[in-house]
Amino acid sequence: MPSIDIAGVTKRYGTDTALEGLDLTVERGEIYGFLGPNGAGKSTTINLVLDFIRPTSGEVRVFDLDAQANALAIRKRTGILPEGVEPYDRLTGRQHVAFAIESKGADDDPDDLIERVGLSADAADKKAGGYSKGMTQRLMLATALVGEPDLLILDEPSTGLDPNGARRMREIIREENDRGATVFFSSHVLGQVEAVCDRIGILRDGHLIAEDTIDGLRDAMPDQTRLRVTLDRVPDDSTAALEAVESIDGVSSVTPEGRTLVVACTDRAKTTVLHTIEEYDVTVEDFTTDESSLEDLFVAYTSDATPAEVAQ
Amino acid sequence: MSAIIVAKKDFRDAVRSRVLLALTGLFALFTVGGAFLASRLSALFEEGGAESTIDLILALQTPASFLVPIIALFVGYGAIAGERESGSLQFMLGLPHRRQDVVLGKVLGRTGVVAVSILIGFTVGLLGLFAFVGSVSLVDYVAFTLVTVLFGFVYVCLGVGLSAMTRSTTRAAVGAVGLVVLLWFAWSVLAQALLFVIEGTIIPETIPGWYIVMNSVTPDAAYGSAITAVLGAGQFTASSAYETQGLIDGGVPIVAKPWFGFVLLALWALVPLALGLWRFDRVDL
Q1: Do the chains contact at A82 and B98, CB–CB below 8 Å?
Q2: Which GO MF terms are attached to this record (chain A) (predicted)?
Q3: Which one of A16, A305, B2, B214 has the fewest CB atoms closer than 10 angstroms to its CB?
Q4: DSSP letters of B56-121?
């Protein structure tokens, strides 16, 4: 029995289509990373699972229950960290956790949860209105962990967290998964999911364009590379130069860093990239290539590849 | 049960509002001022101070009928829309609460907040009455206070109902202000205009029943009717002025009877609440 089963779901807002015929299955006990650039439809998908919004067509099932008809039963077994959620300004962090415990009829100790997410006891006694983004994320994670949920849904959980906080988040995700919880979490940064996820789905413009393990995704684009080109100077018409490089077939992203251009592209596009740059009256002083990072892979998937190419 | 948990949390959150504190202070100022004024006025006209608590309550009803709606609408209008705007509703609804539970919990929690505000205002008013007048019928005063809390509940339902129908606090606020303008000003002007159109004059010799009905159906008039029903004294209903002079065509309509005030209050509370619940249950957050 899958934990989440989304079948043929379309969600429209007026004439805008947020999701189009989405099929997505999260198996019980796995950690599923839900990736996509901002605006791809990740939060829409999560909101459908949580019954915050209703599908235009298609079916959403959680624990094999209809997401809308059984929203209450589902939420009793689910821990949620929504994106961009605001705490209640005038309640303390501890009161938030206590409210979640009472709401779920759980018997957790608020202080244990607060300590687990790395929020200090001092901070927990302060009103949440004064919390930083990172403290709010920790607090909301603490409330999501209440009652040992069977399913954890985390929407952009690393938002506002410092590296320590992000690491703590990953540790908790692993611990919860070891306990038996299914974890479904979204991010627009692949680096955050590669370390913990069993499987990854990439969403773009309301379509799931790839779904595989990290290794599987890597294999699907074996010739992806990152080219660092150092020039003697910035070209006079740098905008045109950037556009020219971007438009080369096989190039998925171009990032200028002073006199250096970082180009994510396929192996065979490398020569074309160098030639194109030199057309702008600059000299290539040096260039290096390194193995594709997953970040480049992700960019390649979300900016360049069409669903058909990726599906192969 | 879920609604109670929401209500408790909501009460704790909303009762800490500074604006609420200011409004409560203003309310207390008005009740104590009303008590003072009542004692002075009655001292001028009747030797030896106010004759009955009823007269004093009349003096307190006026500030209450203006300030309780303002406090209740202020406390209510952001209840749902505000949480939708800020995103805290996603935290609330991410926990096992139905949307209805959230709306009902909000109504209960915020009614509690308004009740605290009213109790503070009326306690201060009561102290004022003891200070200026000396003796007050506690039973009548308590009954008056309870009806006023009911009145506050009605406006909380109106406010929360409005709040549940829209995703923007601005629109909810506009709705709340519009409601006040309609109920306090436009409604009586409309009644007068209709009277002129139908009767040809704004001071007819006998008052038609429909005009009395129209003047009795607003929540504020219903509040007056309910006070009259509870205290067993006639001066708080919309029709009392005409009634005592026997000017009403065909006697007092049922809608203008004191006990009917409770029916009207119930309608004013439940209809907007039901509409808000119905709408909120169907929308995308």
Answers
A1: no
A2: ATP binding; ATP hydrolysis activity
A3: A16
A4: HHHHHHHHHHHHHHHHHHHHHHTTTHHHHHHSHHHHHHHSS--HHHHHHHHHHHHHHHHHHHHHHH
Give how far A94 is from chain B: nearest CA, Å. Answer: 12
- Nearest neighbour of A103 by CB, restricted to B88, B90, B97: B97
Q: Read out DSSP for A103-145? A: HHT----HHHHHHHTT--HHHHTSBGGG--HHHHHHHHHHHHT
**Interface ipTM:** 0.84
In a domain, residue A306? The reply is: no
Instruction: Check whether residue A181 and residue A234 sit in a common domain.
Output: no
Same domain flag for A189 and A246: no
Output the pLDDT for position A308.
42
Cβ separation A76–B96 shorter than 8 A:
yes
Asked, for residue A307, whether it belongs to a domain, the answer is no
Minimum Cα–Cα distance from A153: chain B residue? B94
In this structure, are A234 and A180 located in the same domain?
A: no
The answer to whether B49 and B134 are in contact (CB under 8 A) is: yes
**Confidence at B49, pLDDT banded by 50, 70, 90:** very low
- Give the per-residue SS3 of A146-165: CCCCCEEEEECCCCCCCHHH
Find, among A14, A26, A18, A79, the residue nearest to A45 by Cα: A18
Q: Quick: pLDDT tens for A124-153.
A: 999 999 999 999 999 999 999 999 999 999
Q: In the structure encoding, which two tokens stand for residue B158, read together?
A: 């109106």
Q: Place A297 in a pLDDT band, splitting at 50, 70 and 90.
A: low
pLDDT of residue A303: 65
Same domain, A144 and A265: no
**A17 and A48 co-located in one domain:** yes
Domain of residue A273 covers 222-291
Confidence of residue B140 (pLDDT cuts 50, 70, 90): confident
Residues A130 and A258 in one domain: no
Considering the domain architecture, whether residues A15 and A123 belong to the same structural domain is answered as yes
Instruction: Indicate if A200 and A104 belong to the same structural domain.
Output: yes
Residue B170 to residue B176: CA distance in whole angstroms: 10
Residue A298 lies inside a defined structural domain of this protein:
no
B200 touches chain A (CB under 8 A): no
Cross-chain Cβ contact A47/B285 below 8 Å: yes
> CA torsion A84→A85→A88→A94, rounded to 10°?
-110
Q: Which residues of A touch B284 (CB under 8 A)?
A: 13, 47, 52-54
Which of B226, B248, B224, B251 has the alpha carbon at shortest distance from B238? B224
Per-domain residue ranges for chain B? 2-282
Whether residue A239 is contained in a domain is answered as yes
- From A11's Cα to the closest Cα of chain B, the distance in A is 11
Number of domains in chain A: 2
Are the beta carbons of B88 and A53 separated by less than 8 Å? no
